[in-house]
Write a structure and sequence with these properties.
With about 300 residues, the chain is α+β, with helices and mostly antiparallel strands. It has five helices and 16 strands.
């Protein structure tokens, strides 16, 4: 009778302890000198360690408390939790549980707990998982918030080492593809921008006329840029100040032929090699100047 009473008291104590005080991990592995706090599930586990006993899955909750998700565990970490092939931190890791990821408890709950999650089976350090009533509550919340009709699809599961390697390789391939697309776009922009420069340079030597937009009879700085780009089907605002918002901004170090460079009260078309073609003034007409002849406000890419 005394042994039955002691067992009942242990189950009640353990059930309450499991549902309280989940620990939060700030690293993916444990330290050699780690000491668990003397509260909640940690205290129960410490008692088991000192007696060198393990809590069997079917025993750590009393029968009347068992629910649909009470055999589940959730990673209580901020980065990730290693799933290891053996219940030691020296063993090979076979998968990772990310914050809030779910698993099924399939072995005794001791210092380490054996779990299944996704395609991964292995051991996790018990301090870094939520189990018992807290796991039941979390699972219910996740399922309720999910739009999936299948409750199992509401949870996120572990990523195996092989799955991680495949994902990282796919991400690297995708990044390389996007980089090549961007490089190709730059090459194409440079090619089309050079066409703008070649067209604009045909009018070097023609007169500067304040308020003018004629490439042959005379244009001012913004009228020159506006008329050159109109030839390529690009509509620009009339003044140099308004052109500061046209297209998209790039740095001067990224400037390509055909970009327009805006200054205080002036604008020109970048030719490359640090030069612009522009309507300079009434004395010099349409000609070439160093791109940095005065302070640059912005460089705009229109193509």
């Amino acid at each position: 009778m005394d042994s039955i009473l002691r067992k009942g008291l242990f189950l009640v104590t353990l059930t309450g302890a499991i549902g309280v005080f989940p620990a939060t991990a700030y690293a993916s592995d444990i330290e050699d000198n780690h000491t668990m706090p003397g509260v909640g599930i940690e205290q129960v586990l410490n008692d088991c360690y000192s007696s060198q006993k393990e809590i069997q899955v079917e025993d750590y909750l009393s029968p009347e408390d068992k629910g649909e998700y009470l055999d589940m565990a959730f990673a209580d970490v901020e980065s990730f939790l290693y799933i290891r092939s053996e219940p030691t931190k020296q063993s090979e890791w076979v998968g990772k549980l990310y914050p809030g990821y779910a698993a099924k408890i399939v072995g005794p709950v001791g210092e380490w707990t054996k779990i299944e999650s996704g395609s991964v089976t292995g051991y996790v350090y018990s301090q870094y998982i939520i189990i018992g009533r807290n796991a039941q509550q979390k699972a219910e919340e996740v399922v309720e918030a999910s739009a999936s009709a299948d409750s199992k699809e509401a949870f996120s599961y572990a990523e195996s080492r092989e799955e991680e390697e495949a994902r990282l390789a796919a991400e690297a391939e995708e990044a390389a593809r996007k980089a090549e697309e961007e490089a190709q776009a730059v090459r194409e922009a440079a090619g089309s921008g050079q066409a703008v420069v070649d067209y604009a340079c045909q009018f070097i030597g023609n007169p500067y006329v304040w308020g003018g937009t004629s490439l042959t009879n005379g244009a001012d700085c913004s009228g020159f840029v506006q008329s050159v780009y109109a030839h390529f089907g690009v509509n620009l605002p009339r003044t140099s100040s308004e052109m500061r918002s046209a297209g998209r901004g790039v740095s001067y170090s990224e400037a390509l032929p055909g970009d327009i460079i805006c200054y205080d009260g002036h604008v020109g078309i970048y030719m490359g090699d640090g030069q612009i073609v522009n309507a300079i003034n009434s004395r010099k007409g349409i000609g070439i100047l160093p791109a940095t002849y005065k302070g640059i406000l912005t460089v705009r890419r229109l193509l």
